[in-house]
Amino acid sequence: MERKQRKKTNRSSNHNQKQEEEAAMAESESAAESAAKIRAEGGSHKKRNALVMGRRTWDSIPPKFRPLPGRLNVVLTRSSCPHTVLGSASSEDVIVCSGLRSALRTLASPQYSTSIETVFVIGGGQIYK
Ligand SMILES: NC(=O)c1ccc[n+]([C@@H]2O[C@H](COP(=O)([O-])OP(=O)(O)OC[C@H]3O[C@@H](n4cnc5c(N)ncnc54)[C@H](OP(=O)(O)O)[C@@H]3O)[C@@H](O)[C@H]2O)c1
């Protein structure tokens, strides 16, 4: 009788263990699916970085490579016709600003603040002066 009871208890604890293992497996599969989805979307929040650069640095990038892909290119110029500095490269991946303060203000605006991960100031030398 006692042995029968022990057998029953063992069976029930095996059943619980199996359920726990299945739950853990389902959880890890769902985590793996989420990670794959995030990778497919290109980041945890689909955010991109911003690269702030002087107009001459922009000019030094071969036209076929600019704007630098996957990032928001922010070009600084004092030109009174800012959009002419971009030539035909105008796209949603590049904006022109009249100075560093203006660039940071633009990046902090609602249009960009939620979609920009990190702002990198990449030079050249003049924009640090
Ligand atoms: N090795 C590296 O890692 C690295 C990195 C970056 C750059 N670089 C090199 O550095 C060279 C360019 O550097 P650079 O110092 O001569 O020029 P730069 O800083 O890239 O660009 C200077 C231009 O930026 C605009 N600008 C600068 N300060 C500004 C401000 N406060 N407000 C508004 N606009 C401003 C002006 O454009 P406007 O004249 O249009 O008004 C100015 O002529 C390139 O050859 C590039 O390849 C190298």
Write up this protein:
- There is one protein chain.
- By secondary structure, this protein is an alpha/beta fold.
- It folds into two domains: 1-41; 48-128, Dihydrofolate Reductase, subunit A, CATH 3.40.430.10.
- The chain has helices at residues 2-41, 55-60, 100-108, 110-113; strands at residues 48-54, 72-76, 94-97, 116-123.
- A four-stranded parallel β-sheet has the order 3-2-1-4.
- It is rod-shaped and about 95 Å long.
- The termini are far apart.
- 12% of the residues are buried.
- The mean pLDDT is 81.
- The site of NADP nicotinamide-adenine-dinucleotide phosphate has 20 residues, from β1, α2 and β4.
List the helices and strands and how they pair.
Layout: H1 2-41, E1 48-54, H2 55-60, E2 72-76, E3 94-97, H3 100-108, H4 110-113, E4 116-123
Parallel strand pairs: 1-2, 1-4, 2-3
The structure holds NADP nicotinamide-adenine-dinucleotide phosphate.
Structure keywords:
2 domains; 4 helices; Dihydrofolate Reductase, subunit A; rod-shaped; single chain; binds NADP nicotinamide-adenine-dinucleotide phosphate
How many DSSP helices?
Answer: 4
Helix content: 40-55%
CATH class category name of the largest domain: Alpha Beta
User: What's the alpha carbon Rg, rounded to whole Å?
Assistant: 27 Å
Largest sheet: 4 strands, parallel
Residue stretches low in confidence (pLDDT < 50, at least 5 long) are none
Overall mean pLDDT score? 81
**Per DSSP, what share of the residues sits in E-state strands of 2 or more residues?**
15-25%
Under CATH, the topology of the largest domain can be stated as Dihydrofolate Reductase, subunit A
Q: At the fourth CATH level, what is the homologous superfamily of the largest domain?
A: Dihydrofolate Reductase, subunit A
What separation lies between the terminal Cα atoms?
A: 90 Å
Along the chain, the helix and strand elements come as HEHEEHHE
Form type: rod-shaped
Total strand segments? 4
Q: How many domains, in number, for the residues?
A: 2
Major β-sheet strand ordering? 3-2-1-4
Give the distinct bound molecules.
NADP nicotinamide-adenine-dinucleotide phosphate
